Amino acid sequence: MLELAILGLLKEQPMHGYELRKQLSQKLGFFWTVSFGSLYPTLKRLEQRGVVKMHAYGDKPSRKRQVYAITERGEREFLELLAESAVTRWEEDKFPLRLAFFRYLKPEMRIRLLERRKVYLEDKLDFGRASLRRTLDRTNRADSYTVSLMRHGLDTTERDIAWLDELIATERRLLASADEQPAPSADATGGGGPALPDTPDDTPTPSEELQSQ
User: What is the pLDDT of residue 84?
Assistant: First the structure.
């Protein structure tokens, strides 16, 4: 998870260690517990793998600072980490972190991953409801605190599912709007030149669209 977070932040801009630590806390710390003790060892491993490069800058040797930047190989690995849940189930604590970088995925992939997450939560909701029924049926004097906690968990899961429904609906509207736009003519694109390579998608994310409403 820390590797995904580091690569995602470095994809936005190169940073030195202190700034990277600050951004990890400010941008991601609200929904994810950052392990700062493993930050520099993780940066070292990423550098050894060639997904991050480090260079020093500054006029004086005593004031040189180490700045980390993502490499081309790192760009590819970042996208693989971000979308790896297409073939493996998302662990619950990784979903918010991946969602923070959803703007780098294409709309079709975002929809697929959101729908997979929704199925996971629906299964969790069904299991929770069954557990609550068993708890209430077991005795006429069920522990009120346990029952209250279980109901709170169900309410939270229901709200998360409704939130995902809203995100998915927004993504589908964005995708439909993009499909309705006319394709550029040959004159506008410069004729029959070679196709450009795929680049990270810049379509607004549901959160960006919702904020603008």
Answer: 75
- Contact indicator for 136, 142 with CB cutoff of 8 Å: yes
Please provide the DSSP assignment of 125-160 as one string.
Answer: HHHHHHHHHHHHHH-TT--HHHHHHHHHHHHHHHHH
pLDDT at 43: 93
Range in 75-79, 131-135, 187-191 with the lowest mean pLDDT: 187-191
CB within 8 A of 41, min separation 6: which ones? Answer: none
Contact yes or no for 6/20 (Cβ under 8 A): yes
53 contacts 71 by C-beta, under 8 angstroms: yes
pLDDT for 85: 55
- pTM score, two decimals? 0.72
Q: What is d(CA 89, CA 62) in angstroms, rounded to the nearest whole number?
A: 48
pLDDT digits (tens, 9 = 90+) for 43-56: 999 999 999 999 87
Structure tokens at 164: 């995902």
Q: How do strand 65-70 and strand 15-16 relate by DSSP bridges?
A: antiparallel
For residue 187, pLDDT beyond 90: no
DSSP result, 37-85: GGHHHHHHHHHHHTSEEEEEE-SSGGG-EEEEEE-HHHHHHHHHHHHGG
One-character DSSP codes across 169-187? HHHHHHHHHHHHSPPPPHH
